[in-house]
């Protein structure tokens, strides 16, 4: 499993739901899921983000790519570079057709490894809806602990989990 970086033009095309244009500029073949309704809002946020903060492109959402199957199976990445306190927040979503195959765990572990390798990162955060038991169990299994809750304007109530960067034993 690899996390494949996309450029600003591909992010914009995905945000617009334009799979053909996105695929023309992407380094790997994409899937209809990535240009679909469930993913478009994330691409829209990230496309706007890199206009304001071009270096954030190195941190944000990428394609979860299975090189053995030559298949894009989802998206995963950080919400942005580390903040002033050294916190990065992870986000991930796997195409329903490819869930329960270890891709989310592999993507999360890749993000944890990236965070551990970056001196500016102290903490990795995941914010998860209370009814998303699968994601909750995933982060708990990777060493995250519940630290509180927040209300996200898009997603509503979320439980906040954190782990210190570099402490993941995987």
From TrEMBL:
InterPro entries per record: Acyl_CoA_acyltransferase, GNAT_dom, N-acetyltransferase
Gene3D superfamilies per the UniProt record, alphabetical: 3.40.630.30
Alphabetical list of SUPFAM superfamilies matching this protein: Acyl-CoA N-acyltransferases (Nat)
Keyword Transferase among UniProt keywords: yes
Gene Ontology molecular function, alphabetical: acyltransferase activity, transferring groups other than amino-acyl groups
Keywords tagged on the record: Transferase
Domain N-acetyltransferase residue range list: 9-166
Pfam families according to UniProt: Acetyltransf_3 (PF13302)
PANTHER family hit by this protein: ACETYLTRANSFERASE (PTHR43792:SF13), GNAT FAMILY, PUTATIVE (AFU_ORTHOLOGUE AFUA_3G00765)-RELATED-RELATED (PTHR43792)
Official protein name in the record: GNAT family N-acetyltransferase
């Amino acid at each position: 499993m690899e996390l494949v970086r996309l450029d600003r033009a591909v992010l914009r095309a995905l945000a617009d739901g334009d799979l053909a244009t996105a695929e023309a500029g992407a380094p790997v073949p994409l899937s209809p899921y990535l240009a679909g309704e469930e993913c478009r809002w994330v691409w829209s946020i990230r496309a706007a983000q890199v206009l304001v903060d071009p270096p954030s492109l190195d941190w944000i959402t990428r394609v979860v790519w299975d090189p053995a199957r030559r298949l894009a199976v989802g998206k995963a990445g950080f919400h942005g570079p580390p903040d002033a306190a050294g916190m990065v927040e992870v986000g991930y979503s796997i195409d329903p057709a490819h869930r329960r195959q270890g891709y989310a765990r592999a993507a999360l572990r890749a993000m944890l490894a990236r965070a551990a390798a970056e001196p500016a990162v102290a903490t990795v955060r995941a914010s998860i809806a209370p009814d998303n038991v699968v994601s909750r169990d995933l982060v708990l299994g990777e060493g995250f602990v519940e630290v509180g809750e927040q209300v996200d304007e898009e997603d509503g109530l979320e439980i906040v989990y954190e782990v210190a960067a570099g402490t993941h034993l995987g």
